[in-house]
Amino acid sequence: MEDIQLLEAVERYIRGEMKPDERVHFEQLRKTNAEVDQLVVEHTLFIHQMNEVGELRKFISTLNEVHTDLAEKGSINSDKLKGKAKLVYLWKRYKRVATIAATIAGITTITISLLVWSVTPKTEDAVTKLNRKLETQNRKLETQQIHTTNLSKAVNSLTEKVKEIDDKNESPVINYTTGGTGFLIDPKGFLVTNTHVIENARNIAVERPDGKEFRAEVVYIDKARDIAILKITDKKFKSPGAIPYSISKSAVALAAPVFTLGYPGSKVVYGEGYLSSESGYNGDSTSCQVTMTASKGNSGSPILNKNGEVIGVVNGRQSNVNTFVFATHAKYIYSAVEELKKKDTIYHRIKMPSVSTIRTAEREQQVKKIEEFVYIVKVN
User: Fold this and answer.
1) Across-strand partners of 287?
2) Is residue 245 classed exposed, middle or buried when 0-12, 13-18 and 19+ CB atoms within 10 A define those classes?
3) Residue 165 domain-assigned?
């Protein structure tokens, strides 16, 4: 048991603050450990002497009050007092200064205690021993604090150096040969694109409309529905904020107006059209057909309705036809995320947007807000 903890236990034992079972254990410790027993005896004596000091101070205060009362009535002449009576007078005269000094540093208590200790050598030994233990503990705490401070400084310095090295050692230039489009489904860096866009990729990067590029990796693939989920792994990536659009679980009615944002080139392109078939290529029920112009780079683009809700993901177009595209129903994004969560608990924190905050906005404003969350997907 550490000295400071032992002293606290002795204090509680003397004051009767221990629980019955704890007290029995401590008394057994006293019987088997002479040092602990001696410490209890000495500390009890110390407390007793300190109580006597308190009584002495009260007595001195009473004498001062009597002396002052007699002096004010003219019964005694303070200037002629000598010896002990003079001491009482001087105590009253400098009482305020002594009280302030005692409050700040405990000088009065220490002085009186020394007077008591001078006639009780055993008490002096006990107090000296306790003070020595407290001083030893304080030195240990100070040393530990110094070590902790130095360690903290060292860790901070190392962290800064690692950051500097990481900033200097930028990723090598990669020549990306193919790509498509992706859009965020969680602001922490999870995107949806097509499986065929990133299939067999060695390196993947995503680029925001402002030109900033970030490394990414594939965390889930659904070949049957042509859906892939990417995670931005670049430390430089920062969340752009709340996603303005939502992911719809409902089907869209035939002839419903829709629009998309994608990257057939290096700049985002807006396209609009309408739902021309509730099924996809060769009657595929997992996708639908949208009449609009699209290019190869549009693969992975979101298809949105007038309320700013994602109702599908562009998954390519029929060969030699550029007037319509096929899109996987958005409800399968939810299925992909649920399957991903089963792989690892780390993905349980994915939270897709369920409410569109641009529902009543004009189309221009909708596009302006959505554009920030639609990225170019680059593959090598």
Assistant:
1) 328
2) buried
3) no
225 and 136 in a single domain? The answer is no
Report how far residue 116's alpha carbon sits from residue 348's, in angstroms, rounded to the nearest whole number: 70
Q: Which of 116, 140, 164 is the last residue before a domain boundary?
A: 140
Residues 274 and 368 in one domain: yes
Tally of structural domains, the chain: 2
Per-residue pLDDT of the chain (380 residues; tens, 9 = 90+): 566 778 788 888 888 888 888 888 888 888 888 888 888 888 888 887 777 777 777 877 777 777 777 777 766 665 555 555 555 555 555 555 445 545 544 544 554 454 444 444 444 455 566 667 667 767 766 776 676 676 667 667 766 766 665 555 555 678 888 889 999 999 999 999 999 999 989 999 999 999 999 999 999 999 999 999 999 999 999 999 999 999 999 988 999 999 999 998 889 999 999 999 999 888 899 999 999 987 778 899 999 999 999 999 998 755 555 688 999 999 999 999 999 999 999 999 999 999 999 999 999 999 999 999 999 999 99
Range of the domain at 318: 178-379
Whether 224 and 360 map to the same domain: the answer is yes
> Which of 140, 163, 189 is a domain's end point?
140
CATH number at residue 309: 2.40.10.120
Q: Identify whether 167 is part of a domain.
A: no
Closest CA to 324 of 300, 286, 288, 283: 288
Q: Are residues 204 and 351 in the same domain?
A: yes
In 82-194, DSSP assigns E strands to 178-186, 190-193
pTM: 0.56
Looking at the fold, whether 243 and 368 belong to one and the same domain comes out as yes
Residue spans of beta strands (DSSP E) within the chain: 178-186, 190-193, 204-207, 213-222, 227-232, 246-247, 257-262, 269-277, 287-291, 302-305, 309-314, 324-329, 374-379
Alpha-carbon torsion (236, 237, 238, 240), positive or negative: positive
Q: Give the angle subtended at the CA of 172 by the CAs of 169 and 178, to the nearest 5°.
A: 145
